[in-house]
Design brief:
single chain; alpha/beta; ABC transporter transmembrane region fold; Rossmann fold
Length: about 600
């Protein structure tokens, strides 16, 4: 069975709407660049002034050459003086060229830097849900290769303005010298304009496709490198290689398509001015023979025509670079125009000052939340945690334990209900203040490619070494750190994979301790530790938790026992509350959950 044929009018309307959307996106991209260039207004004005002076010196050389021929050679005039004038003009042109290019490159790199800083800061501000759906390689491509395309365009702006000035000045001089010959010489220019317009309309989608394919390739490489242990562990190197081969072939295919478009346009830039030069030699030569034109005028005319070749070629390059920049700016603007779904309020409140054990009260009031509208994870979750109290959240996989942590950090906002710390709704707090006061050790421990010391002091880079070591001791990490090749200065490699899973989590616990939050969350923080060695850090955790509001997400009885109170989470609500022994006796669901986790722990994980 085949579908109904597509209505031609509907197809045309859809195509027109898509083209209009693309036009709007390009316009917004250029507006982004214009706002950025506004911050460099003074330097750009200097660049234009230097360019105008460069144009004057450049176009003076043929006129001086004409005078040297007509006055110095034909009339036996001061040829040496004219030669000196030509040399001075040439020297001025060279110096101004150097200054113009330096300013152009300096400002283009500054534009690239501003945009890169802006997009990086914005990516960090964006909500976690955005990152859940975005490919890392795509974001990296926008912050690197796309901005390089913008830089290459911006560097040509002052150079192109100078060349346009040269084009205008040369055209004016040719018209004033001999308008008939100027018409013959410049006749090809309208054809170049037509070709430029056609080139622009065709090259933009091709360039955008190239940049999209490059971002896809970056995603494959990033995933293959970051997941190299999974790739090697499953022996799927060939699978990833085939993905990369496919993306590389796609880049080659779309790049050749773009190159084909350029190859049909750029030769015209070289050919059309040459046709004008041939016409000038033929027609102008006859005028010299007839005495209607001096030899100096003809030589100057020819020099001026050759001076048109580079500006015209530059325009062609500028159109190509402009289309690449337009495609890049569209992609950059897509990120910068995305508004964070979670942000600080305009007038945030502050948490009350700490007063010993009176700080760190956490309250969940009828919290509802789902990652999408089709499935709700929390369904009226209520829980009050007193300052300094430790609570263990226990539940089956998917019960919503880690979701509670994400909501507490405002990675996401609740659908309804509210969460409060010390009586203040999280949505009324500045995000920075909130996250400084809630320290989390995630189940999936992430360490940076830096020294052990800098990883522990990540939240407070200026922390004293004594503070770092004290935190490491509390987390049970000091002993193994001192045995590393360079102790606390040991570089631990990407994601800290040079350490065992248990060691990484101990460093992460120490990192949370240095941050000194009023609420500490241990999200299954002992999951990577072999059960036989868990006791090595359990005492340290008990010390860390003493007097501090702590939420422990755990499934091992030994870790659960560290908490003052146990909360069983089931189907998004609190199913039971109490001590471990009481719940074992009174809650069948609690026994089922612990039994299920015990079966999983029976499989060796090799974490420590």
């Amino acid at each position: 069975m085949t579908g109904a044929p597509l209505d031609p009018d509907a197809a045309a309307a859809a195509k027109g709407e898509a083209e209009e959307q693309a036009r709007i996106q390009r316009s917004l991209g250029w507006h982004l660049l214009w706002r950025t260039l506004q911050e460099q207004k003074r330097a750009l004005i200097w660049g234009v002034a230097i360019g105008i002076t460069w144009t004057a010196a450049k176009v003076a050389v043929p006129q001086l050459t004409k005078s040297a021929i007509d006055q110095g050679i034909e009339r036996n005039g001061p040829l040496l003086a004219w030669s000196v004038f030509i040399g001075v003009a040439g020297l001025a042109t060279g110096l101004l060229t150097a200054g113009r290019r330096y300013l152009a490159f300096r400002e283009s790199r500054w534009t690239e830097t501003l945009l890169r800083e802006r997009i990086f800061a914005h990516i960090q501000r964006l909500h976690v849900a955005y990152h859940d759906k975005s490919q890392t390689g795509q974001l990296m491509s926008r912050a690197s290769s796309d901005l390089q395309q913008v830089q290459q365009f911006v560097v040509m702006i002052p150079i192109t303005l100078s060349n346009l000035g040269q084009l205008f000045a040369v055209t004016l001089i040719l018209a004033l010298t001999d308008w008939r010959l100027a018409v013959v010489a410049l006749a090809p220019l309208p054809f170049i304009n037509v070709a430029s317009r056609r080139f622009s309309s065709r090259i933009h989608p091709a360039v955008l496709e190239v940049q999209n394919e490059q971002a896809q390739l970056a995603s494959v490489v990033e995933e293959s490198v970051s997941g190299v242990r999974v790739v090697k562990g499953l022996g799927t190197e060939n699978v990833q290689f085939e993905k990369l081969r496919q993306e590389a072939d796609d880049i080659r295919r779309v790049s050749l398509r773009a190159a084909s478009i350029r190859s049909r346009f750029l030769p015209a830039i070289d050919l059309l001015p040459s046709l004008g030069l041939i016409a000038v030699l033929g027609y102008g030569g006859h005028r010299v023979i007839n005495g209607d034109m001096s030899i100096g005028d003809l030589v100057a005319f020819n020099v001026y025509l050759t001076m048109l070749v580079w500006p015209l070629r530059n325009i062609g390059m500028m159109v190509a670079l402009g289309q690449r920049a337009a495609a890049a700016l569209v992609r950059v603007h897509e990120v910068l125009s995305t508004q964070p779904a979670v942000r600080s309020p305009e007038k945030p409140r502050s948490l009350p000052a700490r007063a010993g054990e009176a700080a760190g009260a956490v309250q969940f009031e009828s919290v509802h939340f789902g990652y999408d509208s089709e499935r709700e994870i929390l369904r009226g979750f209520d829980l009050a945690i007193a300052p300094g109290e430790s609570v263990a959240l226990v539940g089956a996989t998917g019960a919503g334990k880690s979701t509670i942590v994400r909501l507490l950090l405002r990675f996401y906002d609740v659908t309804s209900g509210r969460i409060m710390i010390d009586g203040v709704d999280l949505r009324r707090l500045d995000l920075g203040e909130l996250r400084r006061n809630v320290g989390v050790v995630f189940e999936d421990t992430f360490l940076f490619n830096d020294s052990v010391r800098n990883n522990i002091a990540f939240a407070k880079p200026d922390a004293d070494q004594s503070v770092v070591e004290h935190a490491a001791r509390l987390a049970g990490a000091h002993d193994f750190i001192t045995q590393l090749p360079d102790g606390y200065n040991t570089q631990i490699g990407e994601r800290g994979y040079s350490l065992s899973g248990g060691q990484r989590q101990r460093v992460a616990i120490a990192r949370a301790i240095v941050a000194d939050p009023r609420v500490l969350v241990l999200d299954d923080a002992t999951s990577a530790v072999d059960p036989s060695k868990e006791h090595e850090i359990r005492d340290a955790m008990r010390t860390v938790m003493a007097g501090r509001t702590t939420i422990v997400i755990a499934h091992r009885p030994g870790t659960i026992a560290l908490a003052d109170r146990i909360v069983l989470l089931d189907e998004g609500v609190v199913a039971a509350v109490g001590q471990h022994r009481d719940l074992v006796e009174s809650s069948e669901r609690y026994r089922e959950v612990l039994a299920a986790w015990a079966v999983r722990d029976a499989v060796p994980a090799g974490g420590d």
